[in-house]
Amino acid sequence: MKKKIGVYVCHCGNNIADYVDVEKxxxxxxxxxxxxxxxxTMFACADSTQKEVxxxxxxxxxxxxxxxxxxxxxxLFTFRNVAERAGLNPYNYVQANIREQVSWAHSNDxxxxxxxxxxxxxxxxxxxxLSEALTPPKITATNVVLIVGAGxxxxxxxxxxxxxxxxxxxxxxxxxxxxxTSQWNSLFETNExxxxxxxxxxxxxxxxxxITLFTGTSINSTSGSVGNFEVKLKISPxxxxxxxxxxxxxxxxxxxxxxxxxxxVEVPDDFNFNITKRKAIYxxxxxxxxxxxxxxxxxxxxxxxxxxxxxxxxxxxxxxFIDIKVGAVLLATGFDPYEPPKGEYGxxxxxxxxxxxxxxxxxxxxxxELIYKDxxxxxxxxxxxxxxxxxxGENKYCSRYCCTSAIHSSIQIQNKYEGITSYHFNRGIxxxxxxxxxxxESSEKGDIYLQVDEENRASVLVENGKTIVKANDxxxxxxxxxxxxDLVVLVTGMTPRAEKRTGEILKVPIxxxxxxxxxxxxxxxxxxxxxxxxxxxxxxAPFNITEAVKLALSAASKANTLLNKGEIELEPTLAKxxxxxxxxxxxxxxxxxxxxxxxxxxxxxAVAEVIEAKCKGCGMCLPVCPVDAIELIGYSNAEMESIxxxxxx
Amino acid sequence: xxxxxxxxxxDVLVIGGGIAGQxxxxxxxxxxxKVLIVEKDLSIGGKMIHLSKVFPTLDCAACITxxxxxxxxxxxxxxxxxxxxxxxxxxxxxxxxxxxIEKRPRYVIEDACTGCQECEEVCPxxxxxxxxxxxxxxxxxxxxxxxxxxxxxxIDIENCILCGACEKVCSADAIDFTQEMEIVNITxxxxxxxxxxxxxxxxxxxxxxxxxxxxxxxxxxxxRQLVPTRPYNSVLRPKDGKMPDNIAYVLCTGSRxxxxxxxxxxxxxxxxxxxxxxxxxxxxxxxxxTIYYLHIRAFGKGFxxxxxxxxxxxxxFVKGKIGRIAELENGNLxxxxxxxxxxxVKEAEHDLVVLSVGILANQLPRDLFKNNNLDLDKFSYVKQxxxxxxxxKTSIDGVFVAGAASGPMDIPDSISSAGxxxxxxxxxxxxxx
Amino acid sequence: MTAEKRKTINVIxxxxxxxxxxxxxxxxxxxxxKLILKALESGxxxxxQIAEEINIPIGDVTFTLMSLRKYGDVETGEIxxxxxxxxxxxxxx
Amino acid sequence: MDTEKKAKILVFSTDKISDPAIDLAxxxxxxYSPTVYTITVPCSSSIKSRWIMHAFEKGYxxxxxxxxxxxxxxxxxxxxxxxxxxxxxxxLMKAKKIDPARLKMAAVCSVCAxxxxxxxxxxxxxxxxxxxxx
Lengths: 649, 433, 93, 134
What we know:
The complex is a heterotetramer.
Chain A: E1 5-10, H1 22-30, E2 35-41, H2 47-60, E3 64-69, H3 72-85, E4 93-97, H4 99-103, H5 110-129, E5 138-140, E6 144-148, H6 152-163, E7 167-172, H7 179-183, H8 194-207, E8 211-215, E9 217-225, E10 228-235, H9 250-262, E11 266-268, E12 277-279, E13 281-282, E14 294-295, E15 320-326, E16 328-331, E17 335-337, E18 353-355, H10 356-365, E19 371-372, E20 375-376, E21 379-386, H11 402-416, E22 421-426, H12 436-444, E23 448-451, E24 459-463, E25 466-473, E26 479-485, E27 487-492, E28 494-496, H13 501-506, E29 533-535, H14 545-563, E30 567-569, E31 575-577, H15 587-591, E32 597-602, E33 605-610, E34 630-632, H16 637-648
Parallel strand pairs in A: 1-2, 1-3, 3-4, 6-7, 6-16, 7-8, 16-29, 18-27, 21-22, 21-27, 22-23
Antiparallel strand pairs in A: 5-30, 9-10, 10-15, 11-12, 13-14, 17-28, 19-20, 24-25, 25-26, 31-34, 32-33
Chain B: E1 9-15, H1 19-30, E2 35-38, E3 53-54, E4 59-60, H2 61-74, E5 78-81, E6 84-93, E7 96-103, H3 118-122, E8 127-128, E9 137-138, E10 141-142, E11 154-155, H4 165-169, E12 182-193, E13 197-199, E14 216-218, H5 219-225, E15 246-253, H6 269-283, E16 288-293, H7 303-313, E17 316-327, E18 333-339, E19 344-350, E20 352-357, E21 359-361, E22 369-370, E23 399-401, H8 411-431
Parallel strand pairs in B: 1-2, 1-12, 2-5, 6-22, 12-23, 14-20, 15-16, 15-20, 16-17
Antiparallel strand pairs in B: 3-4, 6-7, 7-12, 8-9, 10-11, 13-21, 17-18, 18-19
Helix pairs in contact in B: 1-2, 1-8, 6-7
Chain D: E1 9-14, H1 18-27, E2 36-41, H2 49-58, E3 62-67, H3 77-95, E4 103-107, H4 113-133
Parallel strand pairs in D: 1-2, 1-3, 3-4
């Protein structure tokens, strides 16, 4: 039992002190048994306070420490470090959360909040009194990272990790790498084309010996945990033997082309967002990587016509599974463009209403004249915020990239084709930062900007065979404006991937916007609550390419730091079996998800034993024991019951 | 503080101890690299440590910076030189940068000072407190601010009358007037430029009357009024201490403005103003807040929702262009503006006007490098020469850029940019080893 | 303490001279400080009340008063009936 | 209403999933009764019936398990196991003539701040009512 405990009650500026009477809390706590020092402090986390606590622990030889401040999710480690620096075991430190769960939650009731703070701290005191000094076990960690998604974020992270000395598996569920970036033509950040950037990066990727790429591959299942994940990968059949395909072999290319030509199956080409069709044998663009076409297994009728032309084709390929061992997983799975439901601004009903991604493909495909469905385009109306900033729909968020992307496309068609009039029906242009210059350039080129708001949106209708966009323009005091246009481009935003399985297998939490959720936007922007699982890029929120790459590189840095020492310190919260009481009934082994409990022999009696390296401290074995012979370190009956007592006392 | 104070060789020299410098320094230090952070200010923490709460999560800036600040200060692989400035960097070859650093005297022995503030009490001088953006005074010997790191006193020698009172009273014998400016020469294998940004000076826009009208303040001055360690007891007008009840924000002050030479958007003002408006409504429940804007750039994760929340709380957003601000006899301000929704010129009276000042490039990196050219963009930000695939890469191999040194950026963007810089630096160091 | 207290101030005095403007500003501040503290001797006052009583520009009064408050000479009282101006008191030390 | 004695509720939350949601409720300043006290455990399937029974003995009016549900980082068996714990404890409660409705369980995801507060409000209301009728 600890007898010399120091308790510090944090004002947190006025975050706590405005609602909790910290002086009263201090007085009440000072009366408790075993409490030697009680102090209040403006910012417990400030370096000066940390120093003061260290000095106090040393001077008064404190044997327990309680800091009542914010959520332990923010500062548990900060204060455990404080304890450690003063020579106190970090597990003799307990944090009482009197901000998130007291002052903020009950800011409407200062008296109630003060009472609750006292109870919460008493609970923390009860815990610290019974706390044991613990040393965290270390596990070996594999310095290997699995990157899911070979779009720009994934490829960039792969190269960087490889250069920092980490082995990388990178998987892509498509048969080709490059993700969304490869689908874009000119990129607004630098005017390079997506294809160029991906080609450049893929060349770099191929140079690294410590990167293995699997295309057509997804995660089938995982087990294990940080440092040692075991992942089963599912490789779907490409139906063309990749190793048969030679580069710069004109003869071979000819044969492949013949095979493509003979293929009788035509399906919408999703690389071009379905504005064109492709065969069941396909590749996305000229320099697509890997440099080998693929056969769309779902679309292919297996007629076998192609096989006669090309020996590389193998319609009998089956899906394969391989097992890999990795220390961490980095998700860079990207986004799906918002797909408007039929009828939203005439989409799917009016012939010449398309989405921004479709428009971008169209610009890429139309070399000299902008033609859509055999009609030469002389005027374009852009309708912004389609699928973003929805008032009634689910997507409340702004998709961040689309204003700039639409404006950039508009500039691009001015430069590439002659005499096109552009109308931008926007809800406030969000060309933040240097992107503002594009907005300026487009306005100077004569693009017409009309602003609408949530209540008065633009509408698209057909009158006498002509497509008309109507709106009340805020910029001209709400005057009704009408434009007859050849093409309507719906500036669609980003949505989370429709493919949910990867996130579900890895149990990555999702946020209110349904994108993957990081732990903290500012403190831990690429970490998730699942240790060893990182996220980066557009799978966590809409981002443009530069931003996604920055996040990918951040995640690479964090993953490398986690694994490069070859070992990771774990929490020492492990299950412990009271072998005297144990009657070996097997219930605990059945409950344990990690196979961490074994049958062993104790002087002729069969008893259970915990394998420490496997135990993750979840405690699932605790309640199933019929004789109550298992305790979790830090959560023993004595501790739990004394906390329960203390909080109501 | 690092034990290896006199070390002369580092893997990485980080210029700037703000959030970007700290984040990249910490990442690299945690991977085992030796890092030197040079901070020109008396404390590390940059701009962020002075902010109140941060958008869109409304957690307090101090709660996020102080742990990072103390982690930096404690990390055995990090050495910090505060109150110091890099004068010149000479690239001698791959992995070899010679830097000379000016270490200015504090006139206080850092290790001896306990931060007790007894010296402040006896100092007879009161001058503008730059850490409170001149809203209140400070002494000539002073601790910069309560959560400064290091939290030790310094003497502002320009404003000192050399009375010696501080030295007499200091029980720790920490005052030392014999200190002189030192030049520290070090070598580093790589450099991260994380020198941040400057705020736009609104005296350049005369028609807003900043500096002339006491109740026209900058957003940074409002920010200080909203922190726990604020200069006044409440949000008050600096001219007469009146509690304002009708506050106006003028967005795009010094941004998107060709006339002042800054045509780009500052990326943060819309959101920090929206945040301040929410905080003001908490601090002064009776006050009305009007935000005059051109476009609201609520683009980041959770920003749009935050903007809608502010509207829901009753913050008034007026799409309008401010023409001129005039001061009335009672200290109130009259704003002439073009109401874009209605297409007419209007006037409105407010009792406090906050200018949402934009951000500008820090000029420091411009002439730092000898014999090498550090390319800048046309707004004097450090140029990212391969923005899409190597966002931290600059025109000098081995020199990387982090945070707002490469352009306007909010905190999450600065942190991810710093993450990228640390990662690119680490692989550079490994590649060229 | 065994050794006599150091006096490094004498070292710097030989090297530096004090800018006369700084001395001027100090005199200004001391004068204002005295006036404000004196004005508050007769009881709590708002900033406009002090400014009127001592006949000093109100902006200067606010700055000096707030500095006095920061260094513990003055404390904040209640707000006036109009919810406009706070009263300030002398702080008993 | 305010003078009424508020029901004391013990909440078992989990480190990684439901406790962050309770924190988030605070961050968003959504209020609930201040007589709700939280104990954090690694996983909701580690809660022993004896702890819950102990709480009732000591005078808590209600016990609420903010379960991980399918989000549990430790495995999918969590929900099922937590359900069994609640079932077993209900039996023990019946034997001691404690209204089984005084123990509740619901899955609370890491961002389910609003749903947590709703649970607290309705549970507080229920417990206050039963107390009055008892």
